[in-house]
Write a structure and sequence with these properties.
Layout (H helix, E strand, L loop, with lengths): L6 E4 L11 E3 L16 E4 L15 E3 L1 H6 L4 E2 L4 E4 L7 E3 L8 E3 L3 E4 L8 H9 L1 H9 L11 H6 L1 E4 L2 H40 L3 H7 L10 H6 L4 E2 L6 E2 L3 E4 L4 E5 L11 E8 L11 E2 L4 E3 L1 H5 L11 E4 L7 E4 L4 E2 L3 E6 L5 H18 L10 H6 L1 E4 L2 H41 L10
Parallel strand pairs: 3-8, 15-20, 16-19
Antiparallel strand pairs: 1-10, 2-9, 3-4, 5-8, 6-7, 6-9, 11-12, 13-22, 14-21, 15-17, 18-19, 18-21
C-alpha cells in the first residue's frame, strides 16, 4: 500500500506468539484416506477453499482420537488457511462454528495471527488481491506439482497499514460480501419455496386432497384455480393423479434444443458478445440464474456452428458427464453440445418447466447411460412420464412462482454488481489509492 503509515514486513512477523502459529498439514503417512470417518473432527482439504471468505463445503472427518494425535496441525476459528499445493493462491478464514477445531490436510497451511497487529478479514482480502496471487504463483516451486511452502508464506512481503485502518478496509469490503452472501441465502430460500409449492401442486396433489376433505381454499393456490380443481384422485400408470388430468412425457410440454461448439481453431468465432454456456458456468447449488458465462462467441461463430440461441428463461440441463446440472438463462445465450435447452411449448411457463425438470433430475440420472460418460439424449425425455395438468392450472401456477424467480434474478444481478464493485475497490483500497477512515470513524 502507498499509505504513509503502511509498514512493509515479512508476513511471518504478524503471526501470533503461540506454538504452531504457522503450520502445514501432517506428514503423508500420518493422515490418509483410510483415517476418514463419517463424523468427528473435520479435515480442511482443497475443496473447502475457494468458495468465498470461509472454509466451507463438504468435509471429511477423522475420529477425535486421530485428531488428538494431529494436534499440531489444528486450525481454530479465526485462523487463516492457505493452499500449499493444488490451486495456489487460495485463502479462507476458519469460521466461528459449527466446529471448534479442524485438522489441516497435507495440501494446506494454517496461520494464527496476532490480532493486535493484523485483522483477519483484512489479511484475507490482502491475499485475495490479484497482485498477491500473482506473486504466489510466480514464486511457486516448480519441481513436480507446483507448490509453495511455509517458508515462502512467512517471507511473503506484507504491506499492511496500522490495524485500525486494516479494520476499516475490511469493514467496507466485508459489508459488500455480507450483502452478496445475504442475497445468495435469500435466493436459496426462494428456490426452496418454489420447489415446495411445485411439489404440493404436482407431486403430492395437496390442494386436491384438501378440497376432497372439505377445504374451501389452499395456501399458494389462487381461489379461482382452487375452485376449478377436482375433488378426487384416480389411478394412472404413474400412480394416483387428480381426476381429469392426463399422463404424458416431459417432451410433450417443451421443445428440446441441442447445443453446439464453434470451431476452436477459428479465432473469428470466439471472444464475441454472445454468452456461450457450458457446465463451467453452472450456478451453485441452490441458485438458479446464469447471467455471465466463462466464454463468449461471435455472430459468425453462432452462424457457422450447431450452437443456437435460447431466450431468457430457458432451462439448460447438462446431458453428458455430470448429468442434471440446471440453470435458467438470465439473458439470451447459446450453449455447448453437452447440454440441452428446454423451452415451454406455450412459450410462457418457464418457471414451471424448470421445476418439472428439477423434480425429475434423479429420474433422468437413473436413465443415463454410457461406458465413459453418463449421457441422456432427447429420447430420454420421451420416456419420462409426468402428470399433465390442464393449461389453466399450469398458467395459474406460473403466476404464483414466476415472481419468485424474478426476485431471484434481481438478487443475482445485484450481487453481480456488488461483486464488480468489490473487485474494483479491493486493489484500490489495498494500494491506498482509495482511503477510508478508521473503523471507529
Amino acid at each position: 500500500m502507498n499509505d504513509e503509515n503502511t509498514i512493509e514486513a515479512r508476513f511471518g512477523s504478524y503471526a501470533s506468539n503461540v506454538r504452531n502459529a504457522f503450520v502445514g498439514g501432517p506428514f503423508g503417512s500420518n493422515l490418509v484416506s483410510a483415517d476418514y470417518v463419517s463424523a468427528g473432527v473435520p479435515v480442511i482439504r482443497g475443496q473447502n477453499l475457494g468458495q468465498g471468505r470461509w472454509v466451507s463445503g463438504k468435509f471429511a472427518f477423522v475420529s477425535p482420537e486421530k485428531a488428538e494425535s494431529l494436534k499440531a496441525n489444528w486450525a481454530r476459528p479465526g485462523d487463516l488457511v492457505f493452499t500449499q499445493r493444488g490451486t495456489l493462491g487460495q485463502v479462507a478464514i476458519v469460521p466461528d462454528g459449527p466446529w471448534d477445531k479442524y485438522v489441516v490436510s497435507q495440501s494446506q497451511m494454517k496461520v494464527t495471527l496476532d490480532r493486535e497487529r493484523a485483522d483477519t478479514l483484512f489479511v484475507y482480502y490482502y491475499f485475495s488481491n490479484p497482485r498477491e496471487i500473482e506473486y504466489i504463483l510466480s514464486n511457486a516451486i516448480q519441481t513436480g506439482v507446483p507448490h509453495t511452502n511455509l517458508a515462502q508464506l512467512r517471507n511473503h512481503p506484507a504491506r499492511f497499514p496500522d490495524v485500525a485502518k486494516q479494520r476499516a478496509v475490511a469493514r467496507v469490503l466485508g459489508t459488500l460480501d455480507d450483502k452478496i452472501e445475504q442475497n445468495r441465502r435469500t435466493a436459496e430460500v426462494l428456490e426452496r419455496l418454489a420447489r415446495a409449492i411445485f411439489k404440493a401442486w404436482f407431486v403430492d396433489f395437496e390442494p386436491v386432497r384438501a378440497k376432497a376433505n372439505g377445504a374451501t381454499s389452499f395456501p399458494s393456490v389462487p381461489q379461482r384455480i382452487f375452485d376449478s380443481l377436482p375433488v378426487r384422485l384416480t389411478e394412472s400408470e404413474i400412480g394416483p393423479i387428480p381426476e381429469g388430468w392426463d399422463v404424458d412425457s416431459v417432451s410433450s410440454i417443451c421443445s428440446i434444443v441441442s447445443g453446439g461448439t464453434p470451431k476452436r481453431s477459428e479465432p473469428a468465432y470466439w471472444n464475441g458478445d454472445i454468452p456461450w454456456y457450458s457446465i463451467r458456468s453452472a450456478p451453485a447449488e441452490g441458485q438458479v440464474w446464469v447471467s455471465e458465462t466463462a466464454e463468449q462467441i461471435t455472430e459468425s461463430g453462432l452462424a457457422n456452428s450447431p450452437a443456437r440461441m435460447v431466450p431468457k428463461g430457458c432451462t439448460i440441463i447438462s446431458a453428458r458427464g455430470t448429468v442434471g446440472k440446471l440453470a435458467m438463462a438470465a439473458i439470451p445465450m447459446a450453449f455447448n453440445q453437452t447440454c440441452y435447452g428446454l423451452l415451454p411449448s406455450d412459450m410462457s411457463s418457464y418457471s414451471y418447466i424448470f421445476l418439472v425438470i428439477k423434480n425429475a433430475v434423479a429420474d433422468l440420472q437413473q436413465r443415463s447411460y454410457g461406458s465413459v460418460f453418463d449421457t441422456i439424449t432427447k429420447p430420454t425425455f420421451d420416456e419420462l412420464l409426468i402428470p399433465m395438468a390442464p393449461s389453466r392450472i399450469v398458467i395459474g401456477f406460473e403466476s404464483v412462482v414466476e415472481p419468485l424467480f424474478e426476485l431471484m434474478l434481481q438478487l443475482s444481478r445485484e450481487s453481480s454488481s456488488l461483486t464488480e464493485l468489490r473487485d474494483y475497490l479491493l486493489p484500490q483500497m489495498l494500494s491506498g489509492q482509495v482511503r477510508v477512515g478508521s473503523a471507529d470513524g
